[in-house]
C-alpha cells in the first residue's frame, strides 16, 4: 500500500471512529434484520418497522407504579445489582474506568474516548437526577463493575404533546461479557426503576438499528487543525493537493465576526431561555428545559460545555453551545490527545420575523446568520485546542454544513422513543442520505 493510500485509509478510520461516538455499537451501516428476529425488542412497547402510524402517543398506558415489581430480575449467581453512587469519588471512578475501557474504541485500539469525571458529573446529574437511575452490575466476589446503564429525567415535546420522560445513556457491558443477553436485563431493570417513578417514556439514540427509529441523522466532521491530524498520521493528502493547500483549505480566520459574541453568563439566562424556547418551537422532537435545567446544562460546566451569546444594544439575538469530548491517542510519540468539539444547542432570532421557516426570505436570513455563528464556533473551538468539530444533520444544521467545510461522516445516529408511537421526523437527510438543506430536520433534541 502506498503512503497516500495508507494515510487516506487512516483518515477513513478516524472519521468512522468519530462517527462511532454516537454510533456506539460500532455498526456504521444499517443492518438488515426483520422485526421478529429482535428477540428482546419485539417484546417491548416499540413500533414495528413497517407500521403505518395513524395517531401518535403511548403504546402501552395500562400500567401504574404499584403494578411494577419491587425487586429486580435475578442475575446469574456470580453477579449482583448495584446502584452506583456517583457522588462517591470511588464509585464514579468505577464508572469512569468501565466506560473508558469498554465503551467505544477503534479496531486497533489506537484511540479511546477520554470521558472525564467532570463530563459524567455534568451529564449524569441534571436537576432531578436519581441515584437509583445509575444502575450497575458487579461481580459478586470482587465487586468489580462490569455493566452500567443510566437514565436522566427530561421533559420531551413530540410535535404538540409534552410528557415526562427519561434519556437513557451510557449502556455499557464489559467486553468479556458481551453477547450473553445481559443488555436486555439491564434495559428491563432501568425500565423498572423509571416506571416506579410513574414515568413510561424514554428517549435514546444509537448507531444500531432497532425497531423503530423516529428519525435518523448523519454526522459531519470539520477538521480544525488539519496539520495535527496529518502529523499524527490520520489525514492523508489527497492525490492532487499539497499540504500547504490542505492547511489553507481548513484555515479559519483569526477572530470571530458575529457582533457582540461573548460567553453566556448567569444574568443572560432568562433572555437566552426565552430565545431558545422560541427557536425550538420549529422542531417536532425537543427537550423542554426549566431555567434550572438550562443553567445546569450550559453554565459552570467545568470545561465540558461552552456557551456563548451574541448581544447587541442590550438584546441577545443568538445563542450557541458546544461540548468537549476528547480522544486519548495511544502510542503516539507526538500527541497523546485529540481535542474534539460537538455542536450542542443553539438558537437565533434571524428568521423570527418571517412566518414560514422554509420561505426563501427566512431561509436566507437564518442561513446567513448561523453560517457566521458556526464559523465563529469553529474558531472558538480551535482556540480551545480542539482539532475536529462534529455536528449532526439535525436542527437547522444542513444550512451551514457544506459552506463551512464539514465533510459527511459514515456514521448515522438513530433516535428512538420507548413506548411512544410517532410518525417519522425529518433528520436533515434526503433519500440518498446526503444533507438536505431544503427539507432540513425537525429534530431539535441533542443527545450526548
Ligand atoms: C420508561 C423507561 C424506559 C427505559 C428504557 C428505554 C430503552 C433503552 C434502550 C437502551 C438505550 C441505550 C442507549 C446507549 O447508551 S447507546 C450506547 C450503547 N453502548 C455501546 O455501544 C458501548 C459498547 N457496547 C456494549 O457495551 C454492548 O455491545 C451493548 C451493551 C451495547 C450491548 O450488549 P451486547 O452486545 O453484549 O448484547 P446482549 O447479548 O447483551 O444483548 C443483545 C440485545 O441487545 C440489543 N442491543 C444491542 N445494542 C443495543 C443498544 N445500543 N441499544 C439498545 N439495544 C441494544 C440487541 O439488539 C439485542 O436485542 P434483540 O436484537 O435480540 O432484540
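-> sequence recovered:
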Amino acid at each position: 500500500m502506498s503512503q497516500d493510500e495508507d494515510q487516506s485509509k487512516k483518515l477513513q478510520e478516524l472519521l468512522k471512529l468519530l462517527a462511532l461516538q454516537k454510533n456506539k455499537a460500532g455498526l456504521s451501516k444499517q443492518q438488515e434484520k426483520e422485526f421478529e428476529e429482535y428477540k428482546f425488542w419485539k417484546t417491548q412497547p416499540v413500533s414495528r418497522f413497517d407500521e403505518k402510524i395513524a395517531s401518535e402517543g403511548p403504546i402501552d398506558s395500562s400500567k401504574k407504579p404499584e403494578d411494577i415489581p419491587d425487586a429486580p430480575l435475578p442475575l446469574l449467581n456470580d453477579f449482583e445489582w448495584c446502584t452506583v453512587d456517583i457522588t462517591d469519588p470511588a464509585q464514579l471512578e468505577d464508572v469512569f474506568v468501565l466506560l473508558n475501557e469498554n465503551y467505544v474504541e477503534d479496531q486497533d485500539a489506537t484511540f479511546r474516548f477520554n470521558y472525564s469525571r467532570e463530563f459524567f458529573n455534568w451529564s449524569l446529574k441534571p436537576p432531578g437526577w436519581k441515584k437509583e437511575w445509575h444502575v450497575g452490575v458487579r461481580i459478586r466476589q470482587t465487586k468489580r463493575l462490569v455493566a452500567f446503564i443510566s437514565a436522566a429525567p427530561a421533559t420531551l415535546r413530540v410535535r404538540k404533546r409534552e410528557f415526562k420522560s427519561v434519556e437513557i445513556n451510557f449502556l455499557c457491558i464489559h467486553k468479556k461479557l458481551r453477547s450473553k443477553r445481559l443488555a436486555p436485563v439491564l434495559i428491563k431493570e432501568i425500565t423498572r426503576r423509571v416506571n416506579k417513578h410513574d414515568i413510561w417514556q424514554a428517549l435514546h439514540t444509537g448507531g444500531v438499528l432497532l425497531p423503530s427509529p423516529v428519525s435518523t441523522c448523519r454526522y459531519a466532521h470539520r477538521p480544525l487543525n488539519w496539520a495535527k491530524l496529518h502529523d499524527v498520521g490520520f489525514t492523508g493528502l489527497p492525490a492532487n493537493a499539497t499540504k500547504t493547500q490542505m492547511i489553507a483549505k481548513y484555515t479559519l480566520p483569526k477572530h470571530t465576526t458575529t457582533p457582540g459574541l461573548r460567553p453566556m453568563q448567569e444574568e443572560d439566562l432568562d433572555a437566552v431561555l426565552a430565545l431558545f424556547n422560541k427557536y425550538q418551537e420549529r422542531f417536532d422532537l425537543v427537550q423542554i428545559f426549566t431555567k434550572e435545567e438550562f443553567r445546569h446544562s450550559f453554565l459552570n460546566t467545568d470545561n465540558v460545555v461552552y456557551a456563548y451569546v451574541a448581544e447587541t444594544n442590550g438584546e441577545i439575538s443568538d445563542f450557541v453551545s458546544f461540548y468537549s469530548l476528547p480522544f486519548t491517542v495511544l502510542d503516539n510519540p507526538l500527541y497523546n490527545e485529540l481535542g474534539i468539539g460537538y455542536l450542542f444547542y443553539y438558537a437565533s432570532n434571524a428568521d423570527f420575523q418571517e412566518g414560514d421557516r422554509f420561505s426563501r426570505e427566512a431561509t436566507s436570513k437564518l442561513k446567513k446568520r448561523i453560517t457566521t455563528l458556526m464559523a465563529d464556533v469553529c474558531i472558538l473551538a480551535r482556540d480551545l485546542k480542539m482539532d475536529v468539530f462534529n455536528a449532526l444533520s439535525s436542527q437547522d444544521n444542513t444550512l451551514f454544513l457544506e459552506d463551512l467545510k464539514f465533510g459527511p461522516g459514515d456514521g448515522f445516529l438513530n433516535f428512538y422513543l420507548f413506548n411512544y408511537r410517532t410518525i417519522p421526523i425529518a433528520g436533515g437527510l434526503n433519500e440518498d442520505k446526503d444533507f438536505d438543506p431544503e427539507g432540513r430536520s425537525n429534530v431539535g433534541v441533542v443527545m450526548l
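Confidence is low (pLDDT under 50) at residues 21-30.
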